[in-house]
Amino acid sequence: MDEEYDVIVLGTGLKECILSGLLSVDRLKVLHMDRNDYYGGASASLTLNQLWAKYRGTEKPPASLGSNREYNVDLVPKFMMANGTLVRVLIHTDVTKYLSFKAVDGSFVYKQGKIYKVPATDVEALKSPLMGLFEKRRARKFFIYVQDYEEKEPRTHEGMNLRAVKTKELFAKFGIEENTIDFIGHALALHRDDDYLNQPAYDTVMKVKLYAESLARFAGGSPYIYPLYGLGELPQAFARLSAVYGGTYMLAKPDCKVEFDESGKAVGVTSEGETARAKKIVCDPSYLPNKVKKVGKVVRAICIMSHPIPDTNDAQSVQVILPQKQLNRKSDVYVFCCSFSHNVAPKGKYIAFVSTEVETDNPERELEAGLRLLGPIDEKIIDTYERFKPVNESSLDNCFISESYDPTTHFETTVADVLQMYKGITGKELDLSVDLSHASAAEE
């Protein structure tokens, strides 16, 4: 193994696999290693037996849950925005040929104990029971403004420079009420807290536009798509891509140790007495624990049910966002549900996840509002994990460390992290100006 590579990637989590695929396409010489004997790392998909082994030890799953192999339970469940960055990356790299996707049935938001379909256009705003009559009209005007907004067309700006105007000032201009701001900010723009209200409105407007454009790509009830057989398919698809372009994969490599020179720069990785040399190292936080800091903790309930989530029009797949203010919290609660319709469970079974950032010393109680929405639960597993963020300076030590996965049920934050690492390694932005009209081949 005593060879020289441009990049060694440690860990086969989704972020690491996307990155090794992108770097291989750029003709960099990539070695990808993992201490596990399976793909996916922290973002793997598990069969029922694997899920029970991980969380219940020697206990066997109840026979009533059905066939072990028909389950593909994501450890980090996330949907993809149909017009979003990850889909652009998939098309840019042609990974779509290894995957099949299907639209997600519904996107809902929680308000005062009930859930409502998220309106994303002026037409939907007028129909939405989320708002009273006058508020519907104000929201409609806001959505028309967002739909028509083009940065290079000043006539669409209505005299506002969105890179200077704060988001709360834009909402004030349209007279939008607090409850409406809540669902626009959290369920459409997918902000994780309310800091965005004091930031330039441009980012929020572009995120709401992305939501509406993604919704328009399908006749479905949501802007999201999701791969058949679960997210575990994604790391494997990018691994295949990397291999096609000459990338080398080694699984089940114990004790992968990053080697440094006298100046503190990473120069390679040693495993089983052999060292592979490289100019740059990419890894998840578990491989370089002394170069990361803890930034939070996620709590997640994994629930197996025999029915869809109530009040979602029997949606076979759905996202529900519970904005923080509705729950007197600092962070949102996310509900994700998928089923046999995406081949992640046997027929008649549904897998729901409720997740959030931990804020108290009783994490499970923080999920209660989300769990109440699910109806009867056959089996429930509670999992918590700590989130880490790199604190190193990549230009000084040649180490590019991904952030731990956050509790969001969409991919926007994940891909931003990947693209930032890509730029750090290659010195260039990834060109994602792809024509999405050719993307339907892998969509069901």
UniProtKB/TrEMBL annotation:
Q: What does this protein do?
A: Regulates the GDP/GTP exchange reaction of most RAB proteins by inhibiting the dissociation of GDP from them, and the subsequent binding of GTP.
Family note: Belongs to the Rab GDI family.
Record's protein name: Guanosine nucleotide diphosphate dissociation inhibitor
List GO BP terms, alphabetically.
Answer: protein transport; small GTPase-mediated signal transduction; vesicle-mediated transport
Q: Which GO terms describe its molecular function?
A: Rab GDP-dissociation inhibitor activity
Q: Which organism is it from?
A: Marchantia polymorpha subsp. ruderalis
Tell me which domain of life the UniProt entry assigns to the organism this sequence originates from: Eukaryota
Pfam families in alphabetical order? GDI
* UniProt xrefs under InterPro entries: FAD/NAD-bd_sf, GDP_dissociation_inhibitor, RabGDI
Any one of the GO CC terms? apoplast
